[in-house]
Amino acid sequence: MILSMDEIINAICLHQAERKGVKPTDVTVELSWDEDTGYTAEVWVHSRSQYLIESNIMEAVLRYLHSEYNIRAYREQVRLELEDEIIAVVQQ
After folding, report:
1. Which end of the chain has the least Cβ crowding within 10 Å, N or C?
2. Complete DSSP assignment for the chain
3. Residue 38 neighbours by CB under 8 Å, 6+ apart
4. Residue 84 sits in which domain range?
5. What is the Cα 87 distance to its own chain's centre?
6. Is this structure's pTM higher than 0.85?
7. pLDDT by residue (tens digit) across 57-78?
8. CB burial class (10 A; 0-12, 13-18, 19+) of residue 51?
9. Is the pLDDT of residue 92 over 90?
10. Which residues pair with 48 in a beta bridge?
11. Distance between CA atoms of 47 and 78, rounded to whole angstroms?
């Protein structure tokens, strides 16, 4: 199974909205990859910005897999990859 970049962004929006007590539409996310820092996301909630590292992104993806697809995946089963865009590859 592959999650698109849009689904990863949705996962982060849902996760951050739940953690911050806001609506998912109040969350804006920009994913990026850098040779030095790896996969990161910059998240804005009500004009405040926060950076997430790969482990934070993975936490959101794992919760999204469970809530949206009813898949209980472990961290070792999911990896982020950079193709034309950032995707999450899930091995079941």
Report:
1. C
2. -EE-HHHHHHHHHHHHHHHHTS-GGGEEEEEEEETTTEEEEEEEETTEEEEE-HHHHHHHHHHHHHHHH-----GGGEEEEESSSEEEEE--
3. 53, 54
4. 2-90
5. 10
6. yes
7. 999 999 999 999 999 999 999 9
8. exposed
9. no
10. 45
11. 31
The residue behind tokens 């959101």 is: 60
Amino acid in the structure at residue 82: L
What letter represents residue 26's amino acid?
D
Q: What is the number of domains present in the chain?
A: 1
Question: Residue 81 corresponds to which tokens in the numbers above?
Answer: 């990859």
In whole angstroms, give the CA distance from residue 43 to residue 66: 22
Q: What are the two backbone dihedrals, phi and then psi, of residue 28, each rounded to the nearest 5 degrees?
A: -120, 140
Tokens of 87: 């995707």
Considering Cα of 12, then 19, then 39, then 78, what sign does the dihedral take? Answer: negative
